[in-house]
Amino acid sequence: MGCDGGTIPKRHELVKGPKKIEKVDKNAELAAKWKYCALSQEKLRRPIVSCELGRLYNKDAVIEYLLDKSAERPNAEAVTHIRGIKDIKELNLTDNPEWEGERRNTKGDRYEDIHCGMFICPVVGLEMNGKHRFCYLQTCGCVFSDRALKEVKTEICHKCGDPFKDDDIVVLNGNKEEVDKLREKMEEKRAKAKTKKSKKSKATETVSTSESKDGTVSPPTDIAGTSSQQNGGDSSQSAVAGPSGSSSSSKATKSSSASATKRSIQEMNEKSEAFKSLFTTHSSAKRTKDQTSNWVTHTPYHF
Question: Where is the composition biased (Basic and acidic residues) (predicted)?
Answer without folding.
Answer: 264-274
